[in-house]
Amino acid sequence: MVSRKNARHRLAGAFAGVAVLALGLTACGGSGNTDAGGDADAGGDSGSGDLITVGFAQVGAESGWRAANTKSIQDTLTKENGFDLKFSDAQQKQENQIQAIRSYIAQGVDVIAFSPVVESGWDAVLEEAKAADIPVVLTDRAVDSEDESLYVSFLGSDFVVEGEKAGQWVVDEFGDEEINIVELQGTTGSAPANDRKAGFESAIEGHDNLKIIASQTGNFTRSEGKTVMEGFLQANPDIDLVYAHNDDMGLGAMEAIEAAGKVPGVDIKIVTVDAVKDGMQALADGKFNFIVECSPLLGPQLAEIVKQVVAGETPEKRIITEETTFTQEQAKEALPDRQY
Ligand code: GZL
């Protein structure tokens, strides 16, 4: 989808370039708020000259994964690489993300990108971005909007597959053994929580010996994962395995298990998703048993999508990241080279 605004932006850049060459001006792409029509259009131009202005509305800073994801985006969308990045942290609140997106619309940025904290409730603000002729790229998490014209691309993981990989490991590891499982879900209503739960359940379906005896959200944070696990341990004396939707909640569960006088990874197995450094260290130390990787390093691919959009090209609608899994032995080998 090529936005008229971006076509004007490109043309304005060409005019500005010619003007500079003709007049021998030194600065090109300064803060001039130029537009091919000579006037600020409805969305306005963010006044960043030749830089591509991107408004990014991040979920928050809830986990090691999110920190690595933010770093990847901020390290890639730099002025040296041709971007003027405006970045906001929503503290895991949808209303804050919507407010940030509306601010980017008002500023007339060239492209909006965000990681929707939950799947629902985005149509209105995405309609506003569309009306302002500003393309939107979804990174990391998806929305449940029926109208796929509201965003250009989705870039991220297949969370159902991640859940299936975690469930399949449990099936393969325990065969017909009776296993009581407790589940630490991610943020309620988020795509990764919904899909990792569905994928795991589909993998263990038909294996009645594998029972999910309790399931509750830990909101993807270490502290909430620990608190929920403490409750699970008090209510269920015979837990065999924890399935945590991310490493951080798994690390919280690990602390609760140790505080209860049990050995994580031995008395109670721990299976998680992400593969951030702290999780991989717990896996290498034998306190976790299996991790499904979910890559946060989306910055370079986001930069490519944004440049395609501004150049009038149409990126793929759904771009899924390459990911693997880790056993304890594989974690020991991989740790030294991990980027995050
Ligand atoms: C997954 C991402 C999730 C991570 C969590 O792509 O949205 O959010 O698995 C993070 O660690 O909080």
From TrEMBL:
Gene3D superfamilies: 3.40.50.2300
SUPFAM superfamilies: Periplasmic binding protein-like I
Keywords assigned: Signal
Signal peptide range: none
Gene Ontology CC terms: cell envelope
Main location (coarse class): other
Domain (Periplasmic binding protein): residue spans on this chain: 56-313
Protein family (similarity comment): Belongs to the bacterial solute-binding protein 2 family.
Stated name of the protein: LacI family transcription regulator
Lineage: Bacteria, Bacillati, Actinomycetota, Actinomycetes, Micrococcales
